[in-house]
Description:
Layout: H1 2-10, E1 18-26, E2 32-33, H2 35-54, H3 63-76, E3 81-89, E4 93-95, E5 99-108, E6 112-119, E7 125-129, E8 132-137, E9 142-150, E10 154-166, E11 172-187, E12 197-198, E13 204-205, E14 209-210, E15 219-225, H4 237-243, E16 247-252, E17 254-255, E18 259-264, H5 273-290, E19 294-299, E20 304-309, H6 312-324, H7 333-343, E21 350-354, H8 360-371, E22 375-381, H9 392-412, E23 417-421, H10 427-435
Parallel strand pairs: 4-11, 18-19, 18-21, 21-22, 22-23
Antiparallel strand pairs: 1-3, 2-11, 3-5, 5-9, 6-8, 6-10, 7-9, 10-11, 12-13, 14-17, 15-16, 19-20
Amino acid sequence: MQSAWDAWSVSGLRYISSVVRLEEKVEEEGLSPTPKLALYLVAMWVIPIASFFLLHWRMVYLVLPYLTLLSVAYLFFKPSGNVEVWRVVPHNRFLEGQEVEVEVHVRTDFRVDYLYVKDFVPGLEVVSGSPEKVFSLRPGEEGVLKYRVRVKRGIHRFEKILVSYRDPFGFFSSEREVDNFTEVIGVPMLYEVKTPYSTKGTKITIGPLPSPLVGEGLEFHAIREYQPGDPLKIINWKATARTGRIMVNEFESERKVDVVFIVDASKRNEAVFDYLIRAAASLMLNALNDGTSFGLLLAEKIPLWIRVDYGKRHFFKCIDFLSTARPDENNIIAYQVEHLIKTALPPRAQVLYFSALLTEESWEALKILSRYGYRVVVISPNPYSVYEAKSEEEKVALKLLAIRRKAVLESLSGYGIIIDWDIKKPLKVAIAEVMGK
Length: 437
């Protein structure tokens, strides 16, 4: 896992810190009375009323301390100036499960003894620290609120920061929600695994595959007649003399095949959907590091097709869509796959199909790929390996489901290489078990 992340970093994938600054002026009309002020005002009314009924007018003088305190608080301690707040995160992409430190900075141009700051966390678990803090700051002094969250897969938007001022006596307060936008993307966890590519028959190889390519190459392929633009050095002089026509040599060169990732986003895959996404992201990273062109079909209810391309920008585009993918009620993956084959799928592409193979539609999609001549490797997380039996009845039920799944996979084995992945084992072990057969 760590080495996979290191490989990602070594590839030059760097991020820019996300820092947003925003100023909010605390206006006088924004002040609100506190319950403490209400209590003091009630006391100021009770004293004169009591003195009237008791006929002790000197008791009215008891109002003066209250009046003085309120006047001092309003005239000398009301907020008058700017509060500047901004949020800092190290970068904008993190592996799911990673702990991230978030900092909220605050600075004022006036003295404040009580400034309450709260960051609104978008549904992430706070693992240490607190997203709220009370500051006491001098003019120009900067305070920092720090806490750590655990990132989940998906896009998480920090949108607001609450800033609340209160005077030292607790009579007046001013509260504002400051718009401050920071986006954090939780990308799928990466596994250390090599990409299994399928060739003719049932052999699995890793990396580049040989394919006929007219022109100069590594090994002799055939002889054909000269065409304008052919280099003179590939002319076969013996064949030319024998046939009386200019003949040239063709060679078979080695190139890396296009790889197409197909992710079954059916609701039936929900139990293992995160594993499907992680496997796809890990193998996509390998394709990037190998310099292989790749495309992605995210078979949701409204399918997403990202055409075959290469490079880091393309990789990030695919990863961002994988990060936000969610299983839905898609039940037409077979139609989506066949439509893609007829319109956009490269004819010699290697297909990596990620599905738990729980529905007839997912089986039909595999059959269609095979019918059109594509070599398919299926990464199929076993959905029943997620559960732990808690009773004898559950053990029997899981065994029956396992037997049924084994029969289904055997019936589909003629359409592609199926890697039945028990998620309690690393993915590379599941691939190695199939490769060793």
